[in-house]
Every structure is written in structure tokens, then in C-alpha cells.
């Protein structure tokens, strides 16, 4: 959890709005550090978290969270965190001779054209189950997805991913008043040549998800080139659909450290001041 | 007071003489005992060398065990092949097990072409190269002084090397001795020899990739490279070298068509490979002819599915090969991606302008710098023009003349 990002977004673990759909995206950069922030944030806030990790193994997330001061295995034992380790689950499907069967969440690998019903069933059951069992002091349910672009790489169509995100938004944001955070990693050269990458899968998905989201954080590398002291820039866009289309857009630079990240206004890096 | 200090000194001397091994090796982890590995300073990852010392430096110390290094092939696949051979040769010297898969050449041919290790070249710096100490007055007098302001500046090293020695040096002009080679345990996967099985039709992975993944998994399971395997014998590292994945010889049509039919076969295979490696003591180098792949998004997702990604761009066949600017190098090296593994940050390189060159015996990566232009026909502003411009400037604004130069 990065305190500076919280103050920029004007939230805190004690006080945050629900029913939000947060889209994290990146281009020629890596936005996964923001996902670690949101994971720690919602675990500290006491939410019921469902984490769909397609890109990395549990030990990776656990090691990073440890540095950020959150213990994932403890949260998993308590039942606060439901963790789907996509890499592990996919092994038994990609090597079919194996007798062991994992959960059915990754069944879309057998036939990627058929859609993501199984994955959504996993999400909704893990969210429902936790609410049914002991709804003690737990906050609203939260779904985090690491890397929707992995789904595209595995052969799932753009429309199926959009359906999945829409179902998740309806079930979690609207019905259960929870939050959804999804990460999408794109690979275009830059923003300017939109026409060239228009038929690109991840570009279409990015536009579709931007249309759905309520807060978009877009990470990209510096337009002026590689720099050791500034790792890139984040532009945040808060979408307010009710209040007459007033949209706030902010851009700030960031630097990722070993145990956190610092965010600052463009031009105020500690390296130049 | 002094006596007591002396006493304690004596005691300590006696103690050390009695017990010469007062320094105990810190054996925190059983994995530490694997030869040819070391722990990363940054995130505690187990690292192995790629065989090219300067490439290790670029990648932040080495390849982390459990990760994939993607090398985008140069146009003629000559330098990529060399790095792959370096990687495998380092495995042979460190007594790791090897797994070589190829569709074009037989893996045995690749195995026989491994470069010869130079095992006794510990002395790298000649004494003449070392900077002179200030306690040598006559030496200082003899040395020609160009400019006293520059004498305290550190000497610029264009070669990349980490401080501690890790990995070996190889002589690419010779091939490895057969007896060294035969000591290594090597598994092969040669696609044409492999029986085709058409059972996995419902799987999105192509038959060839499915067979390869299955074969890797079998080796990992059988030879006990899995992390979950019981600790019955000493652990070892499996080095996997996959040559030219995605080329048409693997039955893939990524390189041939704009809209390939099997556009997700390679990415699904790489996903499975990542899943396999993350749970085992193995490390893979994959070369892909990505300049043949038309779709940019496909290239991007292939890069993202590997942990490290570098690209070689050779000057062969381009006009830069003979051009005066880059005559010292054989090509450029682009670092596309460095891994974020078990930590938030990645080890970012100091600079991204890197070039590689192949000397007579050695492949090395250096930071790119242009040579000084010593030719007579340098396109500079000639002196007469400069004088004219200065005169013009002074005519316009005579007050600021001391600022012009």
C-alpha cells in the first residue's frame, strides 16, 4: 500500500467508496506494482478479497506483499483471501495425462473459444461462499485480476473477456457493493498511432474496459525516454457518469522502490530538485 | 589496559590457532550447495550464469532459477545461436543437466558445437593496467600529463563486468573437448524424430508444442527437479535450451501469415512452460525469430510471457556493417524486459545503449560509444565560417561579445 497514491486518490483503508471498477493498464511499462498496492489496501481495509492470479505464482505475490507489510498466507488461512493460482491450475490441463484435477476455474483452457463461464463461476462462488459462511466484520467483497492480457494470450476472445468483466461488475460492484480491480497490459508503440493498432486485441479490450470503468490508472514510460530516477508516468482519470460528465484527469510521475513507490508531480523528481 | 588488550589478543590468537575454522560457512539453505549458482543480492533469488559474463551483468547478475530468457533472433540467427551455446556450455562446466530441443538441427549437433571453456584464466588484469599508486614518485614523473584536471577522474570502462567472478570464459574458436561433454547429462528433443500423436486435438496447443511440454515435464518429474520432490539426493539445475520456437519447422504458422491460424499456440506453450519452471529447479533460454512475426501484439505477448527478454540486432547485411560509426561492433543489443520476481522493483540497467561484438575468441556486450572521428573530411563548421559568424554576432550585439565562442 502506497500512502502517496492514497492521498492522490483521496482514499484510505478506513474510508473508501464502494461499487468502483478500477482499471489498471500499462503500455511499454509495468503496472503490476499498482496491483500490489490495491491488494494490500483492501486486505488492510478488512475486505473479502478474491485474487485471480494468472501471471505469477503465489510465492511471488506473497514475497512482495511481505515487503509491503501484508501477510498473504495468513490472510489465506483466515479465509479473507481466496487465491486462484492460474499457473498451477493450468498445468494439469495443458498436460492432460496427469490424473490430478484442480479446480474447474481454468477449464476455459480446454476450449478457449467457449468463454469464461467457469472463471466467473469461481469468482461468484468464492464471493458468495464467504458472505454465506461468517459475515463477521468483513467489509465488502473485492475482486482483483492480474493481467487480463494473459487470457488473450491463452486464446480467449476479446468479447469473452469483456463479458466476464461486465458480469463481475454487475455481480460485485452493483449487487454486493464491492470493488473490482483489473489489470490489463497492452503493447502498442504509443498513443498516437491509434489507427494502426485499432484491430489489435488488447487495444480493443482496453477501449471496452475504459468505457466500463469508474477509475482508470494508466501507466506508461516517459515520453522523453528512459530515465533511471523516474520510472514512468501514471495518468489517473476519475469518471463520474452522473454528475454531468465532469471528469478529472491527473498525470504524475512515479518511481518504484524496494518497499513502495513514490509519486510526484511532473518535474519535481528528487533527482532534479 | 594495554596489557588486558594484549591478553585478549593472545587469547584470541590462541583460540584461532586451536580452532582454525572459526569462520563457519552460513548454510541457511540447502539449495546453496548447487554448483554454478549464487544468491541474488537484491531479492534472494537463486541465480545461474548465462555463460556470457557481460550478459549476466546486463540481466542484473544472472538468470533467476525458474525463469525464461527470451532471445529475439538476429536476422541470420548466428549470434543468437552462439548465446544459446554459451548457455548450454556453462551448464556442462557447472555439471548441470541439459535439455536441448530443436526442429531444424539435431540437438546433438548443437551439443557438439559448444565452445571450449577456458578454465584457468583467473588472472584477467595485467599488472601494467592497474592504476599507479601515489607512492611512486618516479612513476608519476614519467607518466605524461595531458591535463591535470582529468587525472583524478575514474577510468572509463566500456566493458561490462560485475565485481565478483561468476560464470566462466569460453573460446569460441574451439569446440569443447568430448570428454568434458560426455560427463554432462543431456536430454534431447528433436521434433522430426518424435512420434506424432493426434490425441490432443482438443487442446489449443499444437501437437509439436504439446509433445515438447510433455517431454520437459517428464524430465523434470523423472529426474527430481521439481521443488516439491523429496530431498533424496543432492539437487541440481536443469538448463533448457529451446531453439527457434515459432519457426515454421515447429508446425507453426506465426511467421508465414498475417493472421495465423495458431496464433495462440506459442503463447499457450510459453504459459505452460512458465508454470512448469516456477515449480522446479530449472531455467530456460528460448530463441524466437520474432522479426518474422508480423503482429505487434503477438510479439508483445510473447515478450510478456517470458521473464527476461533481450533482442539482438546484427549489422550483418545492413549498411552499418561497413559504416565508420559502428565498425567496432557487430550489432546492437536491446533489453526488452527485466523480471520483477519476488520484488517490486526490477534491476534497471544504467543505460540502454548496448552493443555486442564477437572478438576472435569471445562474445562480449559493451556499452555503445562512437569512435572519435579522425578523418580529414570531418563535416565541421570550418574556421572561416566560424569567424564570419562571430563577426556577424559581434556586429549585431557587441555588448555580449564575451559570451560568444
UniProtKB/TrEMBL annotation, chain A:
Secreted keyword on record: no
Cellular component aspect of the GO annotation: cytoplasm; elongator holoenzyme complex; nucleus
Superkingdom, natural source: Eukaryota
Pathway(s) it belongs to: tRNA modification; 5-methoxycarbonylmethyl-2-thiouridine-tRNA biosynthesis
Record-linked CDD domains: Elp6
Subcellular location: Cytoplasm; Nucleus
Keyword Cytoplasm: yes
InterPro entries: ELP6, P-loop_NTPase
Major localization listed first in the record, in broad terms: cytoplasm
One biological process term in Gene Ontology: tRNA wobble uridine modification
Family, similarity comment: Belongs to the ELP6 family.
Protein's name in the database: Elongator complex protein 6
Native source organism of the sequence: Hippocampus comes (Tiger tail seahorse)
Taxonomic lineage from the root: Eukaryota, Metazoa, Chordata, Craniata, Vertebrata
Automatic annotation (TrEMBL), chain B:
Organism domain of life: Eukaryota
Compartments where found: Cytoplasm; Nucleus
Keywords on record: Cytoplasm, Nucleus, tRNA processing
Pathway the protein takes part in: tRNA modification; 5-methoxycarbonylmethyl-2-thiouridine-tRNA biosynthesis
GO cellular component: cytoplasm; elongator holoenzyme complex; transcription elongation factor complex
Chief location category: cytoplasm
One matching Pfam family: PAXNEB
Record's keyword annotation contains Nucleus: yes
The keyword Flavoprotein appears for this protein: no
Any single biological process term in GO: tRNA wobble uridine modification
Family named by the database record: Belongs to the ELP4 family.
Function of the molecule: Component of the elongator complex which is required for multiple tRNA modifications, including mcm5U (5-methoxycarbonylmethyl uridine), mcm5s2U (5-methoxycarbonylmethyl-2-thiouridine), and ncm5U (5-carbamoylmethyl uridine). The elongator complex catalyzes the formation of carboxymethyluridine in the wobble base at position 34 in tRNAs.
Name used for this protein in its record: Elongator complex protein 4
